[in-house]
Amino acid sequence: GRPLETLLATFGISLILQQAVRSVFSPLNRMVQTPDWMSGSLEIVNGLSITWNRIYIFFFCLACFLALWAVMKRTRLGLEVRAVSMNRNMARAVGISDRKVDMLTFGLGSGIAGVAGVALSQLANVGPNLGQQYIVDSFMVVVVGGVSNLWGTLVSGLMLGVLNKMMEPWLGAVLAKAVMLVVIILFIQKFPRGLFPQKGRGVE
Fold it and tell me: What pLDDT does residue 201 have?
């Protein structure tokens, strides 16, 4: 019942795990070899090309999204997760163990983060800090899309990513990120529950 403290504790644990990786293994980045079939680029028009590894990662992310959607919509775990996220007390009343659901959900989210790390290994340096620069972006995607809504995450992720990349050539990477943050703050003032808020009488 204390989400802010939970968020801070989770961030603190992530720092502990990062330092543990540095101490046990190495603080140095690891070399990752890109396969031949992911090398090169696809030229769309003259002067505009997209590297093959980014194209493959895009479709890989879509496959992961569809797999997660199937888990959330077609399995008992997904039903229990949606029930607990909408109304924890009512879920308890019908016999769902919210503690078990919390643990399984955390494990599922950690697994998805690991899969994301595999994809990022083709785009960023592989080391203890892999993914740290994406934390703020992840929170912005969730806030804009709406908590507990997969389609909102997909739409907001695509929207924010495209807008950010469109502004970078004119404003620069840092200023574009700052502008995006200001826009999102104004958006939250108008739509505090995101683009796709949860609906229903039992939503807490």
Answer: 59
Q: Quick one: CA torsion of 16, 21, 27, 31, rounded to 10 degrees?
A: -140
Q: Are 155 and 141 in contact (CB under 8 A)?
A: no
SS3 82: helix
Cα–Cα distances in Å, from 26 out to 12, 18, 116, 127? 20, 10, 21, 8
- Helices 76-86 and 52-74: crossing angle in degrees, nearest 10, is 80
Q: Which stretches of the chain score pLDDT less than 50? A: none
Distance CA 25, CA 17 (A): 12
Q: How far apart are CA 121 and CA 5, in angstroms?
A: 31
CB 130 within 8 A of CB 120: yes
* Domain range summary for the chain, segments of one domain joined by +: 50-127, 131-197
Question: 3's torsion region: left (phi>0), alpha (psi -120 to 50) or beta?
Answer: alpha
Give the tens place of pLDDT for each residue, 67-84: 999 999 999 999 999 889
